[in-house]
Design brief:
Blueprint (H helix, E strand, L loop, with lengths): L1 H67 L2 H5 L2 E11 L2 E6 H11 L6 E10 L2 E11 L2 E12 L2 E10 L5
Length: 167
């Protein structure tokens, strides 16, 4: 009888130990999962921040060209297929990036222009951005850009704008 009780106690103790060990393993696995999730979240946040900076960098030639009037600089920000659609003085305008660059060069510098990047939204290799300009050739512009990342480089695929005058 004493042997039976001893065996039951030993078995019960082993079972309790196994359960405790299992709970500890579950807790360790849970902690490892949380740590991996935290590391992945930090990695994703860093990648997201870096992509935001890359899109902002891709817009810079266009933004700088507003001040300098350098159409070639503006043109370098766009893909070859890019379209530009908007209105000025109530007139609908549709241009290629080449035409826009030529027009920009003919208008010249706008040294007092100011800009503000209102937002950038990114989803994988696609992005959109809104940039406000004040006093670009005497106009206020709101530009909406669609960008795409190809071969590791962001470029503008299209632009739609409003000149805020008689529209």
């Amino acid at each position: 009888m004493k042997k039976s009780i001893l065996i039951v106690l030993i078995a019960f103790g082993f079972n309790s130990f196994s359960q405790a060990q299992g709970k500890q393993n579950n807790k360790t696995n849970s902690n490892n999962t949380l740590n991996l999730k935290k590391m992945n979240d930090q990695k994703n946040e860093t990648q997201s921040f870096n992509e935001y900076q890359e899109v902002l960098k891709a817009l810079q030639p266009y933004i700088k060209s507003a001040k300098t009037g350098d159409g070639k600089l503006s043109r370098s920000a766009f893909y070859d297929h890019a379209d530009i659609i908007g209105s000025m003085n109530g007139k609908y305008i549709h241009q290629t990036a080449d035409q826009f660059g030529k027009d920009l060069s003919s208008f010249g510098a706008s040294e007092n222009v100011q800009h503000h990047v209102a937002w950038i939204d990114i989803s994988g290799p696609a992005a959109a951005a809104k940039v406000e300009f004040i006093d670009w050739l005497g106009f206020r512009f709101t530009d909406f850009f669609v960008l795409y990342k190809k071969n590791g480089e962001w470029k503008i695929s299209g632009k739609v704008y409003d000149s805020h005058s008689q529209n």
